[in-house]
Design brief:
Strand content of chain B: under 5%
Largest interface: A-B, 62 and 77 residues
Structural class of chain B: mainly alpha
GO biological process, one term (chain B): protein targeting to vacuole
Order of helices and strands of chain A: EEHEHEEHHHEEHH
Number of helices of chain B: 44
Subunit structure (chain B): Adaptor protein complex 3 (AP-3) is a heterotetramer.
Number of strands of chain A: 7
Helix content of chain A: 40-55%
CATH architecture of chain A: 2-Layer Sandwich
InterPro entries (chain B): AP3_complex_dsu (IPR017105), ARM-like (IPR011989), ARM-type_fold (IPR016024), Clathrin/coatomer_adapt-like_N (IPR002553)
Strand order of the largest sheet of chain A: 2-1-5-4-3
Pfam family, one (chain B): Adaptin_N
Number of strands of chain B: 0
Radius of gyration of chain A: 17 Å
Distance between the termini of chain A: 45 Å
Strand content of chain A: 15-25%
Number of helices of chain A: 7
Distance between the termini of chain B: 82 Å
Oligomer: heterodimer
Largest sheet of chain B: none
CATH class of chain A: Alpha Beta
Shape of chain B: elongated
CATH topology of chain A: Beta-Lactamase
Organism (chain B): Linum trigynum
Chain lengths: 166, 935
């Protein structure tokens, strides 16, 4: 079971947080702070695991990957394989890359809900349901199609940026 | 500008989008929180709008702020529910995201989504169904799961793979929250295992079974043939990893299953190119198939490959695998000992920790001394955090099972002393516990303990380190309790009362004072003894057994200290009238001011000491000089002192954890009486006068060990270093200390004493690498000749209650009923799933009540039930008796809920008939759920 997915930048700002068991916001904030505190103290070129029992309770493992300005962090229990989780981070990032063409932090900042859509296709309620980024892309495109279809039916966009973009 | 009640047209027309908020946040340098609260205010207004777009945009912004800026959004729960009911997909999606991010089982409005979820689960739009399933898998509680089980059941047969896959995924939540869903969905779940045409489905099902089996593997044993088929046939690494996880749980339950899977797993391990799968194979073999020697050998070979890999992740996992195998096959670790030792200095913290764990796993009676020496040495050079991890693991390994691996306690005690002096040591509490524990348990080591304690107490620098205060407290207590082993009690008194003790916390200071009291009594006692005996024999004192033995050991252990032994000391420990006077003055000076302390512990002890000196002073000062009255006065003094001395010299032993419970409560003692009245009584009474101390005279005099100090045994001074520290300290605080006459000439030689924290170990820091290498060569050789001179001393162990009892596992009600349901379904004891689909919802409400009470009983029962199925050859008689006992169980359960009882009987009835059909009454292999695989 996967317990949490976090994406944060190298300043410790969260970019995406998903906890598969309910946690109050204060706890979430504390956890992100603690995890970041450990991550930023670690050298490059060391293994990608981190002791997580003290943060997430017994039987917790944590892997992370550092890409450019972002940390991708997965927390899980003994029903998952550590190396497979590292691969899964890779799958997630590859999908983002396909979706945004050379993904960078800004894409992730501005595409909050799309990020959730992608992640939900890969991890479903804590279980890994899809590991092929091509399959994920198919569904994500389908969802985007649905979204734009429903939007075109709607009235004139009312948001400021909606006006500006015309 | 905020028109509070109804949003103005401008506001709703120019609503800021999520992008605007994100941009706004990015441009805020300092006042981010002000910006957030402003946006929040807008959101609160906009979210009330009746326009679906305005509302969903507001909710989207709120969800964003919730997960990025940690803003509370529980207040918006109802608005989120409104959003999912909109027909527009975008709005619906925003609502679902908000719900799954912020709802919990206890969210009050959660039940309101039940209908909307059902509607979306039945939707024709695939992505809408997905949204609803995702939502259910995140927030489903008992009621939601019960209500929506039929819909999920339908979706499990959906022709659309993505939907079907998610429906299977959500089953895990259903089973977890509503175990009766098993009776509906389980069959279809098992059938999905065989849909080899669509890999995503198999992957999803296996994932669900992996989670289920990790909680209660026994219930899924009957499915072993299906899992085995996947293990052999599947080419998907994800699926294979999950299947291996399942077998890791199942194999220990069924030896024949283990035999069957060993071969395919080994084959998989050697053929696969994926490191993750290979590692999973290794882990499965090491955890669950460790009896299969050849498989373990193969796995060890693969571990070696991991260890030499460049990737630190693989090296770490390799070491991790070794740690798994260590308890059963230590040879696999020993084969890699060089690598393990080398990894201690790896830059990677994970690798370091793991290799430390492995080093500790290799520790045995014969090499513990060498390993600890190297590790302590290594700890002094590590960064503080790792240093403490090392110290912690040394402490826990050595104290494991009442110091099982320690033979030479003198060595261990001095190691503890050495560890206390390591600069970053923060293990004060643990060291304190062990010092006292060893003192109580191991009689033979007390002289050495006292020596170590004395060295710690004498070093004024240590008092400044708060981490050491607990250790100093232990040292003070030991020196007070076993003061008879102290060579120079006067010196001990001086260090216990040195000015820097003001740095100690009150609780520790109280221990210091108590120990000073004990030492004082001891000094006076031996002074009076010697004074009496010196009338008869000269200065040479009669020497009782205990002290001579202790000093023999003493010189034995420390006589080899080279040059020091030659140049040592003076007859310090012979107590002269002068030193007695000095002591009493010291007490007046150091303890006197404390009598006004605000800490009650300190004050109490101070008053005790002062009261005693008040009493003894007049008697003693007379006895110091006039020759003629001496006898009479001395007799009086020694009577007083002896009483106290006897009080202190009774032996304290370790106490069992359960000792308190064994004390019977006396008749007529009311333990639970309200003591409120007592306050009135206590409040009015004055504290008792402190100067009067009364001591009970009923002490066992034979038990008391009075120690006479012999001057022949004084050649060796245990540690001139700490004495020199004291000397230096005296220089600094010259005003305070009385001159140390005789010490000076000796110490002139080494006045440049080493700083407090430097280790005394002869090993220099530079040759550490060499050390490690040497350690690798020598200490792990299995056939090391043990050069034990002494036998292991007696360690007092209590029969019971030495350690805290491990609280027995409380059976979890939920899992219980889940596995019960699974078993029922697997045994085919239930009616058709379809009829149940409708029944389940109605049934569950009424059943809930009775079930809770029954759980404990049923579990017992179920275990029994499993036993008879586990597939071992069973004696029919035994079988029968078991059955009858089960029947008894059922009968005993009368007070349980009616409904549950009936059901259970019903089940047993069926079960019995099944047995009757399948098992002929001869010695047969009892019906096993996995026959085709195992036979």
């Amino acid at each position: 079971m996967i317990k949490a997915v976090m994406v944060m930048n190298t300043q410790g700002k969260p970019r995406l947080t998903k906890f598969y068991e309910f946690l109050p916001v204060e706890k979430q904030q504390g956890i992100i702070r603690t995890v970041f505190g450990v991550l930023c103290s670690r050298a490059e070129n060391v293994s990608n695991f981190m002791e997580a029992d003290s943060i997430f309770g017994p039987d917790s493992r944590l892997v992370y990957k550092h890409y450019a300005t972002l940390y991708f962090v997965f927390v899980f229990d003994s029903s998952e394989n550590e190396l497979a989780m590292l691969d899964l981070i890779q799958v997630f990032v590859e999908t983002l890359d396909k979706c945004f063409r050379n993904v960078c932090e800004l894409d992730i900042v501005f595409n909050y809900s799309k990020l959730h859509t992608i992640l939900d296709e890969i991890i479903f309620g804590g279980q890994v349901l899809e590991t092929s980024s091509a399959e994920v892309m198919k569904v994500v495109e389908e969802i985007s199609r649905q979204e734009s279809a429903s939007n075109s039916i709607g009235l004139v966009t009312k948001t400021v940026s909606g006006w500006r973009n015309r | 500008m905020a028109s509070s009640s109804s949003p103005s047209l401008m506001d709703s027309l120019f609503q800021r989008s999520l992008d605007d908020i994100i941009k706004g946040l990015r441009h805020q340098q300092a006042g981010e929180s002000a910006f957030v609260s402003k946006v929040l205010e807008e959101v609160r207004r906009e979210i009330k709008s009746t326009d679906s777009h305005t509302k969903s945009t507001a909710l989207q912004k709120l969800t964003y702020l919730h997960s990025i800026c940690f803003v509370d959004m529980s207040w918006a729960a109802f608005h989120a529910i409104e959003c999912i009911s909109y027909p527009n997909f975008t709005h619906k999606k925003v609502g679902y995201l908000a719900i799954s991010q912020s709802f919990q089982e206890s969210t009050p409005v959660i039940l309101l989504i039940s209908n909307q979820l059902r509607k979306d689960l039945k939707s024709n739009v695939e992505v809408e169904v997905s949204l609803a399933l995702e939502c259910l898998s995140r927030i489903g509680n008992l009621d939601l799961c019960r209500d929506l089980t039929p819909e999920v059941f339908t979706l499990m047969a959906s022709s659309r793979i993505p939907v079907r896959k998610k429906a299977i995924g959500v089953v895990l939540r259903l089973f977890g929250k509503y175990p009766d869903a098993v009776r509906v969905c389980f069959k279809r779940l098992v059938e999905s295992l065989e849909s080899s045409d669509s890999p995503p489905i198999v992957s999803a099902v296996i994932g669900v079974f992996c989670e289920l089996a990790s909680k209660d593997p026994k219930a899924y044993l009957p499915l072993a043939p299906e899992f085995y088929k996947i293990l052999v046939d599947s080419r998907n690494n994800w699926v294979l990893i999950k299947v291996l996880k399942i077998f890791t749980k199942l194999a220990p339950l069924e030896p024949r299953l283990a035999k069957k899977i060993v071969e395919p797993i080994c084959e998989l391990m050697s053929k696969t190119g994926a490191k993750s799968l290979m590692f999973e194979c290794i882990r499965t073999i090491l955890t669950s198939l460790a009896e299969h020697e050849s498989a373990v050998k193969l796995a060890a070979g693969r571990i070696n490959e991991l260890l030499i890999d460049e990737d630190p992740n693989l090296r770490y996992l390799g070491l991790h695998a070794l740690a798994i195998v260590a308890p059963k096959h230590i040879w696999a670790v020993l084969e890699n000992k060089e690598f393990v030792i080398k990894s201690l200095s790896d830059p990677d913290p994970n690798i370091k920790l793991e290799s430390l764990r492995l080093v500790m796993a290799m520790v045995s009676e014969s090499n513990v001394v060498e390993i600890c020496r190297v590790l302590v040495n290594y700890a002094t050079k590590s960064e503080p955090e790792f240093c403490n991890v090392i110290l912690g693991s040394i402490l826990s390994t050595c104290s494991n099972n009442v110091y099982e691996i320690i033979v030479d306690f003198d060595w261990y005690v001095s190691l503890l002393g050495e560890m206390s002096r390591i600069q970053h040591c923060q293990k004060g509490d643990e060291i304190e516990n062990q010092l006292i524990d060893i003192g109580l348990r191991v009689q033979d080591v007390r002289p050495e303990l006292v020596r170590v304690g004395r060295d710690l107490l004498m070093d004024p620098a240590l008092l400044g380190n708060p981490f050491l205060h607990r250790i100093l407290s232990a040292a003070a207590w030991l020196c007070g309790e076993y003061v008879e082993f102290i060579r120079n009690p006067v010196e001990l008194m001086e260090s216990l009362l040195q000015p820097r003790t003001s740095l100690l916390p009150p609780s520790v200071r109280a221990v210091y004072l108590e120990s000073a009291f004990k030492a004082l009594v001891f000094c006076l006692h031996s002074y009076l003894q010697s004074a009496t005996s010196s009338d008869h024999s000269a200065l040479g004192l009669s020497d009782p057994g205990v002290s001579s033995q202790s000093y023999d050991e003493y010189s034995g252990a420390h006589g080899e200290n080279g040059e020091e032994s030659g140049t040592t000391l003076i007859q310090e420990n012979h107590i002269t009238p002068d030193s007695v006077l000095r002591l009493l003055n010291l007490i007046d000076m150091a303890v006197g001011p404390l009598s006004g302390s605000y800490d009650v512990e300190i004050q109490e002890r101070t008053r005790n000491i002062l009261g005693f000196t008040e009493l003894i002073k007049p008697v003693l000062s007379d006895s110091l000089h006039p020759q003629d009255e001496r006898h009479k006065q001395q007799a009086e003094a020694s009577k007083m002192v002896r009483l106290l001395h006897d009080t202190f010299s009774d032996e304290l032993g370790p106490v069992s954890m359960s000792a308190q419970g064994r004390v019977p409560v006396p008749d007529g003692l009311v333990l639970y009486e309200n003591l409120a009245d007592l306050e009135a009584v206590c409040g009015s009474s004055l504290p008792a006068s402190s100067a009067t101390i009364s001591f009970e005279g009923s002490h066992n005099v034979e038990g008391a060990t009075s120690i006479f100090i012999s001057d022949q045994k004084e050649e060796s001074e245990p540690s001139s270093e700490s004495t020199s520290l004291l000397a230096e300290h005296r220089k600094r605080h010259g005003l305070y200390y009385l001159p140390s006459e005789k010490n000076t000439e000796h110490h002139e030689a080494n006045n440049d004493y080493p700083p407090a924290n430097e280790l005394k170990s002869g090993v220099t820091v530079s040759n550490d690498a060499q050390d490690l290498a040497k350690l690798a060569e020598q200490s792990f050789l299995p056939k090391r000749k043990s050069k034990q001179v002494k036998a292991r001393p007696v360690v007092v162990k209590l029969d019971e209650g030495d350690v805290l009892p491990i609280s027995s596992k409380i059976p979890q009600a939920k899992d219980d009923s889940l596995s019960e349901a699974v078993r029922d379904v697997l045994l085919g004891n239930e009616a058709d799933a379809d009829t149940l689909t409708q029944k389940a919802a109605a049934d569950s409400v009424s059943r809930k009540k009775g079930k809770e009470k029954l759980n404990a009983k049923e579990q017992e029962d179920d275990l029994d039930h499993m036993d008879s199925q586990s597939g071992t050859v069973q004696n029919p008689v035994k079988e029968r008796s078991k059955r009858s006992s089960r029947k008894q169980n059922a009968d005993e359960g009368d007070h349980g809920g009616d409904k549950g009882k009936q059901k259970r009987r019903h089940r047993h009835g069926k079960h019995r008939t099944r047995e009757g059909v399948q098992n002929p009454p001869a010695n047969v292999i009892s019906q096993t759920p996995v026959p085709d695989l195992l036979l």
